[in-house]
Write the structure tokens for this entry.
Amino acid sequence: MKRANLIFMGFLIWISGYAQEPYEFPEGLRRVNIAGKYGYVDQAGKEVVPAKYDNAGDFSEGMAWVRINGKSGYIDKTGEEVIPIIYDNAGNFSEGLAWVKMNDQYSYIDQTGKMLIPRHLIASYNFVDDFSEGLARVRTRSNKYGFIDKTGNEVIPTKYYQVGNFSEGMAVVANIAYTSESRQRKFGFIDKAGNEIIPAIYDAVGDFSKGLAWVKLTWKFGYINKTGEEVIPIKYHHIEWKPGDSLLKVNLNKKYGYVDITGKERIPPEYDYIEWKSGDTLLKVMSNNKYGYINIMGKVVIPIKYDCIKRAPGHSGAKVWLDGKTGYVDENGKETSPLEYPYKDIQVIWESPLISHINLINQVKMDQLPDKPSFKIDRPYLIIESNNHGCIELNLIKYSENNFNEQSVSDLKTLIVRYDYPALSRLYPDEVTLTTSYNTIIIYFDMTKKEPFGYDFIFAPRLPDDVLPGFTYGKTSIYNTIQIVESRLTKQKQK
């Protein structure tokens, strides 16, 4: 019990720093897992419902399902059990109804616990879902999908291989398309009367939002409207549209740009990297391993010539790095003061043959890792790290001998570079990525041959179900990086 209290106190400390954020608190409460039990806290981190349940759902329409000792029921926001915990399973309340399961049969109840759609009306289904726009999807025991209304009547026949929930009056449906060589699932859309509005011809689709839905056809992506007309051409290799944004990020032949919701290319896809947040007037771009900023019209504002660039808090321009030197530029791209080396060790690195290896590092990052898993590290070695976007902002971690100086550069046998990059992230409807999990790569370079000869790769850990705003996972610390390198050296000596 004492351990659980300590864990909860730690949670309160963490969460208090993010209490201002509106996300991840459905209807003002957040589900938390404390020592294997679920409860709820408010946005100030205060415990509202004690963590005593084996499982629990998010609040919806003022109620949440909870599970204990193999049975489910419902609580309100005070934690009072308002619908008895007697069901084998239960779903979220949506449009005043929630599905429940007992003795392998489904029914729907209202918020008083009264059964509104009795078991015998939907006894033929082995799956039912929450209501959306007046209809709920169901599945027969022969694995065919359709929809019922709030009286339990099947209003759209169970004839589809897959369906999605209704959104803006349209639902995704899937049929099987047969060819002489294959059997493929194809997707289209129906309306609430069951009419096929958009034929099932696509390899994948998304729900309609703001009158548009993304579609995939032969590995290309685009957007269509509710008549099936292509609004954004199906020609891009990837499209990213965050809720609330007026622009969509597109990838064409590994080049990035932005289009608007009419399909017009506002920023042509010609950059190796591009980053924009809704409301910003400037976009960070990268081309040929150099960074700069462009405005929303695509005009270069800060020259694309820097090894690294970041918007600086409290500064109208940006902090920049070039050939190991750092300084600031204003919003018009003018350097406000001469760029300088941050410290002597970095000057030694940049004013040396290491510069050729820096370019090689970026090449490895952009393309692929060397296929040489078994290797030997020669001393002296130098460990440096880059930032997680692959932009050249290097920090010296460790030199294997005493002091690193100009002579050390000529003696150096192995250069070791560590960097992290995002692998998994969780994006929520408010446009904020709450948590990110990072891969770490440690690349080993032969200073004589000027080529990479090995690497260590640490996979990004799985994102937990319950995470807090702003957390990151998988970044390898400086200490762990040194441990990995020294572990390899120890094994070399033992052989």
In short: The first helix runs from residue 2 to 16. The helical segments are 2-16, 344-350, 354-366, 406-411, 478-494.
